[in-house]
Write a structure and sequence with these properties.
399 residues; alpha/beta; Rossmann fold; 2 domains; 3-stranded antiparallel β-sheet
Length: 399
């Protein structure tokens, strides 16, 4: 008998926008939960967010894969009642939109006393912030970019959104485990800024700033703080990254590039042991010049052969186009991926959950529902509404 997906039987209502909350729902869906996303009729603010292909949002499709899509007008009393009933049926609701009145935790738990509700805000006080404003305030833009750059440098990965999405899924599952044990519901509050603060603390950045305020973390370009890593350009114009975090990795890199004699000279001149990662960081420019000279005299294939033969920790830089076209890790060779057609958009690799479980079925990637495509079926199967009532709701513009 085939094992069910790990979250089979879990039901979640998601009322969301942007990245973090939809990613939280998508994470649960990718593990087998039945997640319904509710948008206003015609779609919410993400419905046409770039990138667009054939006028359809690949962004929306990616963040809502595996969910069922409902469109309900919650500005109407009938719409609010429908959504309240769906939340009571599911017992779990996830949102990053405004919570007040009819959709407050206090009101909703009147219908479901053991309700689990997760609410994501921008700042801890509930005020508005998005990933990019959080990142501006947390400090990373002043340690990102070229060493001689003056001013902040933003990055394009919405890291705090991504981490918050996974944290929302973690929080909901923790609350569900507690509910199974005790019967208690939970109101879970999470802010993007607290997620960023947590990570900055875990990485030592807050402690460093508090304990050494006169020595702020420098901007290092593509060097790696406190150890050795940077980018190099091959003879045929390809960029690679080489890393030496441990003494073994350093020895492998030295052997592959044939710079042992130069390394001994550097150690003697500077009275250091380059097996120590702090010493490698201090002499990163001198080391970089040696390795850059070797890499620059060889093609990517030659670098690959030498580095692989010596077990160097390295990798080529590649664009997203190169990743999709050439890397087997982003293809059906990786069981996480299936190449399939998304209606209205086209055929491309679709990813499932990166997690695998020994005694639970992997949820295969699916196409994403068209906006509102599942409204009638969910109202019919979850709330057991008769067809006549569904038609009346549609005629009134509620669904």
């Amino acid at each position: 008998m085939t094992a069910e997906p790990i979250l089979s039987g879990l039901r979640v209502v998601e009322i969301s926008a942007f990245v973090a909350a939809p990613l939280g729902g998508a994470t649960l869906a990718s593990l087998g939960a039945e997640v319904i996303r509710i948008d206003p009729p015609g779609g919410g603010i993400d419905a046409k967010r770039w990138p667009l292909v054939n006028g359809e949002s690949v962004y929306w499709s990616g963040l809502n894969q595996g969910k069922r899509s409902l469109t309900i007008d919650t500005r109407t009393e009938q719409g609010q009642e429908l959504v309240t009933s769906l939340i009571a049926e599911a017992g779990i609701v996830l949102t990053n939109l405004r919570v007040h009145g009819w959709n407050s935790y206090e009101r909703l738990r009147e219908r479901r006393p053991d309700l689990i509700m997760a609410v994501l805000t921008g700042n801890p006080d509930g005020s508005t912030a998005v990933d990019y404003t959080v990142n501006a305030a947390i400090g990373f833009p002043f340690i990102t970019g070229p060493e001689d750059h003056d001013g902040p440098v933003n990055h394009v990965l919405p890291a705090w959104d991504a981490l918050a999405g996974y944290m929302l899924a973690t929080g909901l599952l923790a609350a569900e485990l507690r509910r199974v044990r005790t019967g208690e519901g939970q109101l879970i509050n999470l802010s993007l800024f607290d997620v960023a603060l947590s990570i900055a603390h875990n990485l030592g950045l807050i402690g460093e700033a508090a304990l050494n305020p006169g020595e702020p973390r420098p901007r290092l370009g593509n060097d790696l703080f406190g150890t050795y890593s940077r980018d190099f350009l091959t003879a045929d114009g390809r960029y690679v990254i080489a890393i030496a975090l441990t003494s073994r990795q350093w020895a492998d890199l030295v052997a592959a590039t044939g710079i042992a004699g130069d390394v001994q000279r550097l150690e003697a001149e500077h009275h250091v042991d380059l097996r120590q990662e702090g010493a490698r960081y201090e002499l990163r420019r001198e080391i970089g010049a040696l390795i850059a000279s070797w890499v620059g005299a060889h093609s990517l294939d030659e670098v690959r052969a030498a580095f692989d033969a010596h077990n160097v920790l390295w990798g080529p830089y590649q664009t997203f186009v190169e990743l999709v076209a050439n890397d087997p890790r982003c293809s059906p060779a990786n069981p996480m991926f299936t190449t399939m057609a998304q209606p209205g958009i086209g055929t491309y690799p679709r990813a499932g959950a990166p997690l695998t479980f020994s005694n639970a079925e992997r949820v295969p990637p699916t196409t994403s529902s068209a906006m509102g495509a599942d409204t009638r079926d969910v109202l019919r199967t979850w709330l057991h509404l008769p067809e006549s009532e569904i038609e009346s709701l549609a005629a009134a513009g509620v669904i």
